[in-house]
Design brief:
- The protein is α+β, with helices and mostly antiparallel strands.
- It has three domains: 3-141, Cytochrome c-like domain (Cytochrome Bc1 Complex, Chain D, domain 2, Orthogonal Bundle), CATH 1.10.760.10; 151-286, Jelly Rolls, CATH 2.60.120; 300-488, Beta-galactosidase, Chain A, domain 5, CATH 2.70.98.
- It is 15% helix and 39% strand.
- The chain contains nine helices and 31 strands.
- The protein has helices at residues 3-18, 21-28, 30-33, 40-43, 59-67, 93-104, 116-125, 135-141, 353-357; strands at 69-75, 78-84, 133-134, 151-160, 176-180, 196-206, 210-219, 221-226, 229-234, 246-252, 255-265, 271-277, 285-286, 299-300, 308-310, 321-326, 330-335, 340-346, 350-351, 369-373, 385-391, 397-403, 406-414, 419-426, 432-437, 442-444, 449-452, 456-461, 465-468, 471-476, 482-488.
- A hairpin with a 7-residue loop joins strand 12 and strand 13.
- Helix 2 (21-28) crosses helix 6 (93-104) and helix 5 crosses helix 7 (116-125).
- The chain is globular.
- Bound molecules: heme C.
- Heme C (HEC) binds next to helix 3, helix 5, strand 1, strand 2 and helix 6.
């Protein structure tokens, strides 16, 4: 008996053990995908449970198991951007088949068994591969199976006309009506390229009672009507790239709700993406065959008592904006263009997802509440120059602006009740007029306290606030630093 046939004899007995897909899964996959298939370390890794990547056509999962996967991938509504190392070199074909058979039939997954022969033929056909796949490559070869959506009794209607805004469908007759049994809203079978509109009507099955979030993006116009109430609307002509996407919140009781989507294609490209999140869920589900760019929040926040800094476009201020999120939930945005703190707010600081994951265009609004827009215009004379900011040992900023031979120092920090601002001038010379707000006129309340708009109270130590023409200013003397504290009502 040769060594080889001896080995295969042993393999026969070993195979009863080796074919235990569950055990092999624990050995080779569960460290990352979790023993329960939900993704190890609390979902930091993508799930195999409920993943469309392991459903349908088995080629997709076989290729990933053999050669790994890297780069952005959307699994069950969440985007990951990680690296799965190739497993093919260490796991033989029959074991990969057993693992995938197990994965495809566990945790609620319901897909057919995978044979060792299929793994073998795919390995042979892809033997020149050395790099992990990207999701894009895999999807070109093996598109994900479309799941039935939460829409039932869905009917689509096509209308034709040269509209530039959403027509009044009640006045129109559809040129075709179709039933969409998979509940998927799709433009793939629209007969036209331009100048048409579509309406989908059906029932949305809400799995539980609570607040639902819907996200809509479209090229060009679209409207979502839930329970006969317009919930989200995108007007006019424009691309579907996330910049025109809108979200809407609606409270639904568990059960079915009338659901209507109107779509208008004016000219150029066409597209519609509509997703929803169940109450307290973190993942998007899609009612369309297209998905909108993912935008999960990435909170930016003070860490270990040090303020967080955000240096990207912030909505409500100028391009050269510098945000500081102080511990305790008090936040400012200083404009280096206008030489003034233009926004102050409480609660969450900024959501980094927009600029960090999508290299997004556009402005990100403050993530928190009680936003007060203090100023919108340049606060100091034209000759004044921004000289940057310095951080003290705990990370609190002092912005410095050169005004002639003097330097204005504007430092900010927070305590548990609000923001503390110290203004001083280094260098001698005359007093400087400082704009505290060009949007709000302070009203004196008691002692050194003033109301600035309806949200903010300001206490001033070392000067008095002056108001004229809806603006609030103070006079800063070179020898007399001033302290202001900002509290929210
Ligand atoms: C070292 C960690 C690690 C191991 C071990 C691992 N994976 Fe993965 N797997 C990942 C990561 C990370 C991704 C996502 C990669 C990306 O972001 O592009 C992934 C993605 C996948 C996907 C596609 C996305 C999904 O969640 O459905 C499948 C299928 C998959 N792995 C199957 C397996 C199987 C089967 C095994 C065991 C044979 C395995 N993986 C072992 C880390 C791992």
């Amino acid at each position: 008996m040769t060594y080889r046939s001896l080995f295969s004899l042993c393999a026969l007995t070993a195979s009863a053990f080796a074919q235990d897909g569950g055990q092999l899964f624990t050995q080779y996959c569960s460290a990352c995908h979790g023993a329960d298939g939900k993704g190890a370390t609390g979902g930091a890794f993508p799930p195999l449970a409920g993943s469309a990547w392991v459903a349908g056509d088995a080629d997709r999962a076989i290729k990933i198991a053999l050669y790994g996967l890297h780069g952005p991938v959307n699994v069950a509504g969440k985007t990951y951007n990680l690296e799965m190392p190739p497993q093919g070199a260490v796991i033989p074909d029959d074991q990969i088949a057993a693992i995938l058979t197990f994965v495809r039939s566990s945790w609620g997954n319901q897909a057919s068994a995978v044979s060792a022969d299929l793994v073998k033929s795919i390995r042979a056909a892809t033997s020149d591969r050395s790099m992990p796949w990207t999701a894009e490559e895999i999807l070109k070869l093996h598109p994900l199976p479309l799941e039935k959506t939460a829409l039932s009794s869905l009917i689509s209607q096509v209308y034709q006309g040269p509209w530039s805004e959403m027509p009044d469908f009640a006045q129109l007759k559809p040129i075709s009506v179709e039933e969409e049994h998979d509940g998927i809203i799709s433009l793939s079978d629209s007969p036209f390229k331009e100048s048409f509109a579509m309406v989908w009507e059906g029932k949305f099955e809400a799995p539980s009672t609570g607040e639902y979030i819907f996200v809509l993006d479209a090229d060009d116009a679209a409207r979502v009507i839930i329970d006969n109430e317009p919930t989200i609307e995108i007007d006019g002509f424009g691309p579907m790239n996330g910049t025109r996407a809108h979200r809407g919140k609606v409270t639904l009781t568990a059960g079915t709700h009338p659901f209507r989507v109107e779509y208008l294609q004016i000219k150029g490209n066409q597209g519609i993406a509509l997703g929803w999140k169940a109450p307290a869920s973190n993942s998007w589900k899609w009612l369309t065959d297209k998905t909108a760019p993912q935008r999960e929040p990435i909170p930016i926040a003070a860490v270990n008592g040090r303020p967080a800094i955000y240096r990207n476009f912030i909505a409500g201020t100028t391009p050269r904006a510098i945000g500081f999120g102080f511990p305790g939930g008090f936040n400012i945005c200083y404009s280096a263009d206008n030489l003034a703190t233009e926004l102050v707010w409480t609660g969450k600081f900024m959501d980094g997802a927009h600029h960090w994951t999508e290299r997004g265009s556009g402005n990100e609004p403050p993530a928190g509440e009680n936003v007060v827009n203090l100023s919108k215009n340049r606060a100091l004379p034209v000759a004044a120059k921004f000289r940057g900011y310095k951080l003290d040992p705990t990370g609190n900023p002092t912005f410095s602006v050169q005004v002639g031979s003097q330097t204005l120092l504007d430092s900010w920090q927070a305590d548990t009740s609000g923001l503390i601002r110290k203004l001083s001038i280094s260098g001698s010379g005359k007093a400087m007029k400082i704009i505290i707000s060009d949007q709000l006129a302070a009203k004196s309340t008691t002692g050194q306290e003033y109301a600035l708009g309806d949200k903010l109270l300001v206490t001033v130590d070392g000067a008095v606030l002056e108001t004229a023409k809806g603006k609030t200013t103070l006079k800063l003397d070179p020898a007399k630093p001033v302290t202001l504290t900002y509290h929210w009502k």
